[in-house]
Specification:
single chain, 427 residues, alpha+beta, five-stranded mixed β-barrel, five-stranded mixed barrel, 21 strands, 20% helix, elongated, binds zinc ion, DNA binding, Single-stranded DNA binding protein, NA-bd_OB-fold
Length: 427
Protein backbone atom coordinates (compact mmCIF):
# COMPACT_ATOMS: atom_id res chain seq x y z
CA UNK A 1 0.00 0.00 0.00
CA UNK A 2 1.22 3.49 -0.81
CA UNK A 3 1.15 6.34 1.70
CA UNK A 4 -1.84 7.70 -0.20
CA UNK A 5 -3.74 4.40 0.27
CA UNK A 6 -3.09 4.54 4.01
CA UNK A 7 -4.29 8.14 4.09
CA UNK A 8 -7.49 7.15 2.24
CA UNK A 9 -8.13 4.26 4.61
CA UNK A 10 -7.57 6.30 7.77
CA UNK A 11 -9.54 9.32 6.59
CA UNK A 12 -12.55 7.14 5.75
CA UNK A 13 -12.29 4.97 8.92
CA UNK A 14 -11.95 7.96 11.20
CA UNK A 15 -14.14 10.36 9.27
CA UNK A 16 -11.43 13.03 9.33
CA UNK A 17 -10.21 15.44 6.67
CA UNK A 18 -7.76 13.74 4.29
CA UNK A 19 -5.30 16.64 4.24
CA UNK A 20 -5.05 16.59 8.01
CA UNK A 21 -4.44 12.85 8.06
CA UNK A 22 -1.84 13.09 5.31
CA UNK A 23 0.08 15.81 7.15
CA UNK A 24 0.13 13.80 10.40
CA UNK A 25 1.05 10.57 8.72
CA UNK A 26 3.87 12.12 6.67
CA UNK A 27 5.22 13.72 9.81
CA UNK A 28 5.31 10.40 11.68
CA UNK A 29 6.79 8.45 8.79
CA UNK A 30 9.45 11.11 8.33
CA UNK A 31 10.61 10.35 11.87
CA UNK A 32 10.93 6.67 10.93
CA UNK A 33 7.87 5.61 12.90
CA UNK A 34 6.77 2.37 11.23
CA UNK A 35 3.52 2.63 9.24
CA UNK A 36 1.56 0.27 11.55
CA UNK A 37 2.56 2.25 14.59
CA UNK A 38 1.96 5.61 12.90
CA UNK A 39 -1.56 4.54 11.89
CA UNK A 40 -2.38 3.36 15.39
CA UNK A 41 -1.10 6.60 16.81
CA UNK A 42 -3.47 8.53 14.51
CA UNK A 43 -6.36 6.21 15.37
CA UNK A 44 -5.72 7.08 19.02
CA UNK A 45 -5.44 10.79 18.23
CA UNK A 46 -8.74 10.87 16.35
CA UNK A 47 -10.42 8.47 18.77
CA UNK A 48 -11.10 5.67 16.35
CA UNK A 49 -10.18 2.71 18.55
CA UNK A 50 -7.58 0.24 17.32
CA UNK A 51 -8.95 -1.86 14.54
CA UNK A 52 -5.45 -2.88 13.48
CA UNK A 53 -6.98 -4.25 10.32
CA UNK A 54 -5.54 -7.75 10.62
CA UNK A 55 -8.15 -9.24 12.94
CA UNK A 56 -7.56 -12.30 15.11
CA UNK A 57 -4.37 -13.31 16.90
CA UNK A 58 -1.53 -14.21 14.55
CA UNK A 59 -0.12 -17.70 14.82
CA UNK A 60 2.91 -18.55 16.94
CA UNK A 61 6.21 -18.63 15.14
CA UNK A 62 9.77 -19.57 15.94
CA UNK A 63 12.01 -16.51 15.71
CA UNK A 64 14.17 -18.20 13.09
CA UNK A 65 11.10 -18.56 10.87
CA UNK A 66 9.93 -14.94 11.05
CA UNK A 67 10.40 -13.28 7.66
CA UNK A 68 9.81 -9.81 6.27
CA UNK A 69 6.71 -11.23 4.54
CA UNK A 70 5.00 -11.63 7.93
CA UNK A 71 2.90 -8.69 9.06
CA UNK A 72 2.13 -9.81 12.62
CA UNK A 73 3.39 -12.77 14.65
CA UNK A 74 3.29 -14.24 18.13
CA UNK A 75 6.63 -15.34 19.59
CA UNK A 76 7.78 -16.73 22.92
CA UNK A 77 11.27 -15.51 23.69
CA UNK A 78 13.88 -14.58 26.26
CA UNK A 79 14.65 -10.86 26.51
CA UNK A 80 18.40 -10.58 25.88
CA UNK A 81 18.84 -6.82 26.04
CA UNK A 82 16.76 -3.74 26.61
CA UNK A 83 17.94 -0.16 26.14
CA UNK A 84 15.98 3.06 26.34
CA UNK A 85 16.35 5.84 23.82
CA UNK A 86 14.61 9.15 23.58
CA UNK A 87 13.40 10.19 20.14
CA UNK A 88 11.23 13.04 18.90
CA UNK A 89 8.23 12.69 16.65
CA UNK A 90 5.05 14.64 16.15
CA UNK A 91 6.71 17.44 18.10
CA UNK A 92 6.90 15.33 21.25
CA UNK A 93 9.57 13.52 23.15
CA UNK A 94 9.06 9.74 23.30
CA UNK A 95 11.06 7.08 25.09
CA UNK A 96 11.34 3.84 23.15
CA UNK A 97 12.95 0.55 24.18
CA UNK A 98 15.15 -1.44 21.88
CA UNK A 99 17.03 -4.69 22.15
CA UNK A 100 17.13 -8.32 21.17
CA UNK A 101 14.99 -11.37 21.85
CA UNK A 102 16.02 -15.02 21.49
CA UNK A 103 14.39 -18.42 21.36
CA UNK A 104 15.84 -21.82 20.48
CA UNK A 105 15.77 -20.99 16.77
CA UNK A 106 17.57 -17.63 16.72
CA UNK A 107 17.59 -13.97 17.72
CA UNK A 108 15.66 -10.92 16.51
CA UNK A 109 15.80 -7.17 17.24
CA UNK A 110 12.78 -5.33 18.59
CA UNK A 111 11.54 -1.82 19.17
CA UNK A 112 8.90 -1.19 21.84
CA UNK A 113 6.89 1.94 21.09
CA UNK A 114 4.70 4.16 23.25
CA UNK A 115 1.70 2.23 24.40
CA UNK A 116 3.46 -1.12 24.76
CA UNK A 117 2.67 -2.45 28.20
CA UNK A 118 4.93 -5.20 29.40
CA UNK A 119 8.22 -5.92 31.08
CA UNK A 120 11.35 -6.11 29.02
CA UNK A 121 13.66 -7.27 31.77
CA UNK A 122 16.73 -9.10 30.39
CA UNK A 123 16.51 -12.80 31.31
CA UNK A 124 12.70 -12.90 31.44
CA UNK A 125 10.82 -15.26 29.16
CA UNK A 126 7.79 -13.59 27.61
CA UNK A 127 5.11 -14.47 25.08
CA UNK A 128 4.61 -11.50 22.74
CA UNK A 129 1.19 -11.80 21.11
CA UNK A 130 0.51 -9.85 17.94
CA UNK A 131 3.91 -8.25 17.44
CA UNK A 132 4.31 -6.30 14.21
CA UNK A 133 7.06 -7.25 11.77
CA UNK A 134 9.00 -4.63 9.86
CA UNK A 135 11.98 -4.82 7.60
CA UNK A 136 15.19 -3.10 8.55
CA UNK A 137 18.29 -3.43 6.40
CA UNK A 138 16.82 -6.52 4.76
CA UNK A 139 16.10 -8.30 8.06
CA UNK A 140 12.86 -8.73 9.98
CA UNK A 141 12.49 -6.82 13.25
CA UNK A 142 9.63 -6.81 15.75
CA UNK A 143 7.52 -3.80 16.63
CA UNK A 144 5.93 -4.05 20.05
CA UNK A 145 3.06 -1.58 20.36
CA UNK A 146 -0.29 -0.95 21.97
CA UNK A 147 -1.83 -3.98 20.29
CA UNK A 148 0.93 -6.35 21.41
CA UNK A 149 0.10 -8.49 24.45
CA UNK A 150 3.05 -9.44 26.65
CA UNK A 151 2.61 -12.40 29.04
CA UNK A 152 5.42 -13.65 31.29
CA UNK A 153 6.02 -17.39 30.75
CA UNK A 154 7.42 -19.92 33.21
CA UNK A 155 9.23 -21.97 30.56
CA UNK A 156 13.01 -22.24 30.32
CA UNK A 157 14.24 -21.88 26.76
CA UNK A 158 17.50 -23.46 25.72
CA UNK A 159 18.91 -20.43 23.93
CA UNK A 160 22.31 -20.07 22.31
CA UNK A 161 22.81 -16.41 23.23
CA UNK A 162 24.05 -14.37 26.16
CA UNK A 163 21.57 -12.47 28.31
CA UNK A 164 22.41 -8.94 29.37
CA UNK A 165 24.35 -7.53 26.45
CA UNK A 166 27.83 -7.61 28.02
CA UNK A 167 30.11 -7.18 25.05
CA UNK A 168 33.77 -6.97 24.15
CA UNK A 169 34.45 -3.96 21.94
CA UNK A 170 35.60 -6.19 19.07
CA UNK A 171 32.20 -7.96 19.01
CA UNK A 172 30.06 -4.81 18.88
CA UNK A 173 28.18 -4.00 15.67
CA UNK A 174 26.26 -0.95 14.46
CA UNK A 175 22.62 -1.31 15.46
CA UNK A 176 23.32 -3.10 18.78
CA UNK A 177 21.24 -1.76 21.65
CA UNK A 178 21.20 -2.16 25.41
CA UNK A 179 24.90 -3.05 25.41
CA UNK A 180 27.14 -3.10 28.50
CA UNK A 181 30.91 -2.58 28.22
CA UNK A 182 33.80 -2.50 30.69
CA UNK A 183 36.44 -0.22 29.24
CA UNK A 184 39.24 2.26 29.79
CA UNK A 185 38.70 5.80 28.50
CA UNK A 186 41.74 6.34 26.29
CA UNK A 187 40.84 9.76 24.89
CA UNK A 188 38.10 12.17 25.95
CA UNK A 189 37.28 15.73 24.99
CA UNK A 190 34.37 18.10 25.40
CA UNK A 191 32.61 19.41 22.33
CA UNK A 192 29.89 22.00 21.96
CA UNK A 193 27.28 21.11 19.35
CA UNK A 194 24.00 22.54 18.10
CA UNK A 195 21.48 20.20 19.70
CA UNK A 196 17.69 20.07 19.62
CA UNK A 197 17.51 22.66 22.38
CA UNK A 198 20.35 24.95 21.35
CA UNK A 199 24.01 24.54 22.25
CA UNK A 200 24.88 21.52 24.34
CA UNK A 201 28.13 20.01 25.55
CA UNK A 202 28.93 16.41 24.72
CA UNK A 203 31.95 14.18 25.26
CA UNK A 204 33.70 12.28 22.53
CA UNK A 205 36.79 10.14 22.43
CA UNK A 206 38.08 6.59 22.33
CA UNK A 207 37.38 3.54 24.54
CA UNK A 208 39.60 0.47 24.80
CA UNK A 209 39.48 -3.04 26.26
CA UNK A 210 41.43 -6.24 25.79
CA UNK A 211 39.75 -6.86 22.41
CA UNK A 212 40.16 -3.48 20.70
CA UNK A 213 39.33 0.23 20.55
CA UNK A 214 36.21 2.11 19.46
CA UNK A 215 35.15 5.76 19.33
CA UNK A 216 32.36 6.93 21.68
CA UNK A 217 30.01 9.85 22.19
CA UNK A 218 28.41 10.73 25.53
CA UNK A 219 25.35 12.86 24.77
CA UNK A 220 24.69 13.59 28.45
CA UNK A 221 28.20 13.99 29.95
CA UNK A 222 28.78 11.61 32.87
CA UNK A 223 31.36 12.73 35.48
CA UNK A 224 32.91 9.26 35.67
CA UNK A 225 33.90 9.38 32.01
CA UNK A 226 37.30 11.06 31.92
CA UNK A 227 40.63 10.27 30.33
CA UNK A 228 42.35 7.32 32.00
CA UNK A 229 39.26 6.14 33.93
CA UNK A 230 38.18 2.50 33.90
CA UNK A 231 34.40 2.27 33.86
CA UNK A 232 31.43 -0.04 33.37
CA UNK A 233 28.86 1.52 31.07
CA UNK A 234 25.39 -0.04 30.99
CA UNK A 235 22.65 0.65 28.45
CA UNK A 236 24.59 2.01 25.49
CA UNK A 237 23.55 1.83 21.86
CA UNK A 238 25.80 1.47 18.85
CA UNK A 239 25.76 3.58 15.71
CA UNK A 240 27.87 3.57 12.61
CA UNK A 241 30.50 6.28 12.32
CA UNK A 242 32.49 6.35 9.07
CA UNK A 243 31.71 2.70 8.52
CA UNK A 244 32.84 1.54 11.97
CA UNK A 245 30.83 1.01 15.17
CA UNK A 246 30.65 3.90 17.64
CA UNK A 247 29.46 3.51 21.25
CA UNK A 248 26.72 5.97 22.26
CA UNK A 249 26.21 6.85 25.93
CA UNK A 250 22.91 8.56 26.78
CA UNK A 251 20.87 9.99 29.65
CA UNK A 252 19.69 6.41 30.30
CA UNK A 253 23.18 4.92 30.56
CA UNK A 254 24.66 4.03 33.95
CA UNK A 255 28.38 4.69 34.35
CA UNK A 256 30.16 3.06 37.30
CA UNK A 257 33.88 3.55 38.05
CA UNK A 258 35.80 0.25 38.32
CA UNK A 259 38.37 -0.28 41.07
CA UNK A 260 40.56 -2.50 38.88
CA UNK A 261 41.97 -0.83 35.76
CA UNK A 262 40.77 -2.40 32.51
CA UNK A 263 43.70 -3.67 30.45
CA UNK A 264 43.76 -2.48 26.88
CA UNK A 265 45.31 -4.34 23.98
CA UNK A 266 48.33 -2.75 22.31
CA UNK A 267 47.50 -4.39 19.00
CA UNK A 268 44.95 -3.79 16.31
CA UNK A 269 43.32 -6.85 14.72
CA UNK A 270 45.18 -7.88 11.54
CA UNK A 271 42.94 -8.39 8.52
CA UNK A 272 43.23 -9.10 4.81
CA UNK A 273 42.51 -5.99 2.77
CA UNK A 274 39.40 -7.48 1.15
CA UNK A 275 37.98 -8.56 4.51
CA UNK A 276 38.59 -5.09 5.99
CA UNK A 277 37.06 -3.26 3.01
CA UNK A 278 34.04 -5.59 2.89
CA UNK A 279 33.40 -4.99 6.60
CA UNK A 280 32.51 -1.41 5.62
CA UNK A 281 35.09 0.24 7.87
CA UNK A 282 37.37 -0.40 10.85
CA UNK A 283 38.26 2.09 13.56
CA UNK A 284 41.65 0.48 14.27
CA UNK A 285 43.03 -2.23 12.01
CA UNK A 286 46.36 -3.63 10.82
CA UNK A 287 46.97 -4.49 7.15
CA UNK A 288 50.01 -5.94 5.42
CA UNK A 289 50.68 -5.43 1.73
CA UNK A 290 52.87 -4.04 -1.02
CA UNK A 291 52.82 -0.38 -2.00
CA UNK A 292 52.16 -0.51 -5.74
CA UNK A 293 51.78 3.20 -6.50
CA UNK A 294 51.93 6.71 -5.06
CA UNK A 295 48.85 8.69 -6.02
CA UNK A 296 48.56 12.30 -7.22
CA UNK A 297 48.29 14.76 -4.38
CA UNK A 298 51.27 13.27 -2.56
CA UNK A 299 54.54 14.88 -1.51
CA UNK A 300 54.77 18.67 -1.12
CA UNK A 301 51.18 19.93 -1.17
CA UNK A 302 49.32 23.14 -0.26
CA UNK A 303 46.39 23.33 2.13
CA UNK A 304 43.70 25.99 2.53
CA UNK A 305 44.48 28.06 5.68
CA UNK A 306 40.74 28.14 6.52
CA UNK A 307 39.60 24.54 6.12
CA UNK A 308 42.77 22.49 5.66
CA UNK A 309 41.63 21.02 2.34
CA UNK A 310 44.22 20.49 -0.34
CA UNK A 311 44.47 23.48 -2.65
CA UNK A 312 44.89 22.99 -6.39
CA UNK A 313 46.27 25.83 -8.55
CA UNK A 314 45.72 28.26 -5.67
CA UNK A 315 41.99 27.39 -5.45
CA UNK A 316 40.18 25.87 -2.46
CA UNK A 317 36.97 24.06 -3.40
CA UNK A 318 35.12 25.93 -0.64
CA UNK A 319 37.04 29.18 -0.16
CA UNK A 320 38.14 30.03 -3.72
CA UNK A 321 41.51 31.73 -4.24
CA UNK A 322 43.60 31.35 -1.08
CA UNK A 323 47.23 31.59 0.01
CA UNK A 324 47.92 27.89 0.48
CA UNK A 325 50.11 26.62 3.31
CA UNK A 326 52.77 24.02 2.53
CA UNK A 327 52.36 20.54 3.99
CA UNK A 328 53.57 16.99 3.45
CA UNK A 329 51.27 14.06 2.73
CA UNK A 330 51.42 10.67 1.05
CA UNK A 331 48.63 8.67 -0.57
CA UNK A 332 49.97 5.18 -1.18
CA UNK A 333 48.07 2.31 -2.78
CA UNK A 334 48.51 -0.85 -0.75
CA UNK A 335 47.79 -4.25 -2.30
CA UNK A 336 47.84 -7.59 -0.48
CA UNK A 337 46.58 -9.72 -3.36
CA UNK A 338 42.97 -9.69 -2.12
CA UNK A 339 42.18 -5.99 -2.71
CA UNK A 340 43.69 -2.50 -2.49
CA UNK A 341 43.27 0.50 -0.17
CA UNK A 342 44.65 4.01 -0.27
CA UNK A 343 46.87 4.57 2.76
CA UNK A 344 47.14 8.21 3.80
CA UNK A 345 50.28 9.24 5.67
CA UNK A 346 50.23 12.53 7.60
CA UNK A 347 53.16 14.98 7.69
CA UNK A 348 55.13 13.06 10.33
CA UNK A 349 54.89 9.67 8.63
CA UNK A 350 55.58 11.31 5.27
CA UNK A 351 58.76 12.94 6.68
CA UNK A 352 59.97 9.47 7.55
CA UNK A 353 59.31 7.85 4.18
CA UNK A 354 60.65 10.94 2.36
CA UNK A 355 63.74 11.18 4.59
CA UNK A 356 63.43 14.89 5.28
CA UNK A 357 61.17 17.57 6.75
CA UNK A 358 59.08 20.33 5.19
CA UNK A 359 62.07 22.68 4.78
CA UNK A 360 64.08 19.95 3.05
CA UNK A 361 61.16 19.33 0.72
CA UNK A 362 60.81 23.03 -0.14
CA UNK A 363 64.53 23.29 -0.88
CA UNK A 364 64.42 20.07 -2.91
CA UNK A 365 61.52 21.42 -5.00
CA UNK A 366 63.18 24.84 -5.44
CA UNK A 367 66.44 23.30 -6.65
CA UNK A 368 64.62 21.10 -9.14
CA UNK A 369 62.12 23.87 -9.98
CA UNK A 370 59.46 21.15 -9.68
CA UNK A 371 57.33 20.16 -6.68
CA UNK A 372 56.81 16.67 -8.06
CA UNK A 373 60.37 15.65 -7.15
CA UNK A 374 59.22 15.19 -3.54
CA UNK A 375 56.50 12.70 -4.46
CA UNK A 376 58.92 11.05 -6.91
CA UNK A 377 61.47 10.42 -4.18
CA UNK A 378 58.78 8.98 -1.88
CA UNK A 379 57.69 6.65 -4.69
CA UNK A 380 61.29 5.52 -5.28
CA UNK A 381 61.65 4.66 -1.63
CA UNK A 382 58.38 2.83 -0.96
CA UNK A 383 56.91 1.42 -4.18
CA UNK A 384 57.54 -2.32 -4.43
CA UNK A 385 58.17 -2.71 -0.70
CA UNK A 386 55.99 -4.52 1.80
CA UNK A 387 54.54 -2.58 4.76
CA UNK A 388 52.66 -3.26 7.96
CA UNK A 389 50.10 -0.48 8.22
CA UNK A 390 47.81 0.41 11.12
CA UNK A 391 45.08 3.00 11.26
CA UNK A 392 41.44 3.89 10.76
CA UNK A 393 39.74 2.60 7.61
CA UNK A 394 36.70 4.29 6.08
CA UNK A 395 34.85 3.02 3.03
CA UNK A 396 32.56 5.50 1.26
CA UNK A 397 31.96 7.26 -2.05
CA UNK A 398 35.62 8.39 -1.95
CA UNK A 399 36.77 4.77 -1.90
CA UNK A 400 38.60 2.77 0.76
CA UNK A 401 40.95 5.08 2.66
CA UNK A 402 43.08 4.21 5.65
CA UNK A 403 44.40 7.09 7.77
CA UNK A 404 47.63 5.60 9.05
CA UNK A 405 48.91 5.89 12.60
CA UNK A 406 51.75 3.43 11.92
CA UNK A 407 53.56 2.58 8.68
CA UNK A 408 56.48 0.17 9.06
CA UNK A 409 58.36 -1.76 6.44
CA UNK A 410 57.72 -5.49 6.95
CA UNK A 411 60.95 -6.85 8.36
CA UNK A 412 60.65 -10.43 7.20
CA UNK A 413 62.73 -10.34 4.02
CA UNK A 414 61.75 -12.46 1.02
CA UNK A 415 64.74 -14.79 1.50
CA UNK A 416 63.58 -15.68 5.01
CA UNK A 417 60.06 -16.26 3.77
CA UNK A 418 61.32 -18.46 0.93
CA UNK A 419 63.28 -20.54 3.40
CA UNK A 420 60.22 -20.82 5.68
CA UNK A 421 58.32 -22.02 2.66
CA UNK A 422 60.97 -24.62 1.75
CA UNK A 423 61.02 -25.89 5.33
CA UNK A 424 57.26 -26.25 5.09
CA UNK A 425 57.71 -28.33 1.95
CA UNK A 426 60.31 -30.58 3.62
CA UNK A 427 58.08 -31.23 6.63
ZN1 LIG B 1 39.16 26.16 2.24
Amino acid sequence: MSLEDHVEELASDLDVDKEEVRRDLENLVEYSVPMDEAKQSLRRKYGGGDSGGSGGTPSSKAIGEVTTDDSNVTVTAVVLTSGRRSIQYNGEQHVIREGQLADESGTISYTAWDGFEGDLEPGETVQFGNAGVREWDGHPELNLGQSTQAEPVEATLDIDAEVGGESALADIEPGDRGITVEVRVLECEEKVIDGRDGETTILSGVLGDESGRLPFTDWEPHDAIEEGASVRIEETFVREFRGAPSVNVSEFSTVTPLSEPVSVTEDAPRMRVREAVESGGQFDVELVGNVIEIRDGSGLIERCPDCGRVVQNGQCRTHGAVDGEDDLRTKAILDDGTATVTVILDDELTERVYGGDLDDAREHARDAMDKEVVADRIAERVVGHEYVVRGSLSVDEYGANLNATEFEEADDDPAARASDFLQGVDA
